[in-house]
Amino acid sequence: MNPENATTNISVVMATYNGERFLKQQIDSILNQSLPPTELIVIDDCSQDGSLRILQEYASKNPIVKFFSNEVNIGFVKNFEKGISLSSGNLIALSDQDDIWVVDKLQKLFEGIGDSLLIYSNSELVDESGKSLHKKMSDIKNQIGFNSSLMFVIGTWAPGHAFLFKRTLAEKCIPFPSIVAHDFWLAFMATCYKPVKYLAEPLVLYRQHSSNTVSANTFSKSKNKKKLSRVEKEEKSRERMLFLYQSCPSERIEEKNIYKKINESYQNNSFGNRVLRFKTFFKYRDLILAYKNKSYFGRILFCVKMFFKIDA
């Protein structure tokens, strides 16, 4: 997309909940972008700290800050969905409450999105004080461009805090489903129509701390998180694969047929389904396992594993 020939109308949507410690620094980094957003939509999800006071102060002083407060807690996924629905820009960027945006983040994403529905960038990891941890997201996660929905069969890492996407994509994705994360859903649906672009340059300082809703795994997972049994994991995998098969548009004939085969092979571990699963994964291993960044032999071994077990 050529900035000189396009209308720059960017909505930034931020979901907040008890984020007073870092909120001001993030809002300031958004308002001070070299390519300023048209509006900053902030949806607070019943914060109990000083977040409301901070947001009211910004909204009273800056007309592009539009602040809404939920009457009941709806969770961050539905909070982002609500914010997107209330936004008006033809381009949308999602914002966490505790990051810091590089000053030209929106400018570079805007210049790079072109005909794609979604673009995302690398991120630099920082600690609670904003000090660099000397790691980029790409050092610990395989971040790539995505040109096929089959690259989402096993999983991806295209984090929403680094997104810029077109409203036409949002219209295809809302309401957000509960079975997958909102950023996974947006990126998956984007690849059903156009390739997702990736900028290797870090444009977000991604803060790591013990209160992260989602982190880059630099903090241990909650001890209270329920550990699923193998049967429960397989059932979740079946539900997820059925959902992806149903969501893949019928006009994507080849991908739809491949998802159909995988979904059928996930129904049970009969010998026939094991063979179908192995053959399908093996044939399309370079696409399905692109995110895993495995070696040639590693991809073959993964396909062999799929003969014996169902995996998400």
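Next protein, fold it too.
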Amino acid sequence: MPQFCCVAQGIIIYTDGAALGNPGPGGYGAVLMYGPNRKELSEGFRLTTNNRMELLAVIRALQQLKQTGIPVIIHSDSQYVCKAVNEGWLFNWKKKGWVKVKNPDLWKVFLELYTMFKPKMQWVKGHAGIPENERCDLLATSAASTQAVGVDAWYEANRNSADGLF
């Protein structure tokens, strides 16, 4: 997987996730920016949920970063993702051993990356004309509709269990 490196100032990331049906084919999109540098990411999955794709977009974006200690701001239109961090839900879920948490596989990966990069989570209104958010939406929906070949293995293996899904 290629890496995205930035030095100095800060990294701005926009993310979005989509599912055509919920569950259904899904995808994510992310735009990473640092000064004049820009990188776009997207990937589609054959069966998943919108919230899983919203969270996976943030994870995949953070996985591109090579250096810690640089300010990172993530703009997401997912209240699920932003509130989990900004309102402390994530840290309580960990303290309680991830009991009855939806998407624990992804939250555990996110928490490791969050601890490493300490991004600021900023909620933005979706479909409000914010260019990078609109671009992420297009990347996510295109990946869901035309590139949905990836397998969200955890979701597919656990989709019928009573706990841990959304």
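About the second fold: The domain at 11-153 is CATH 3.30.420.10 (Nucleotidyltransferase; domain 5).
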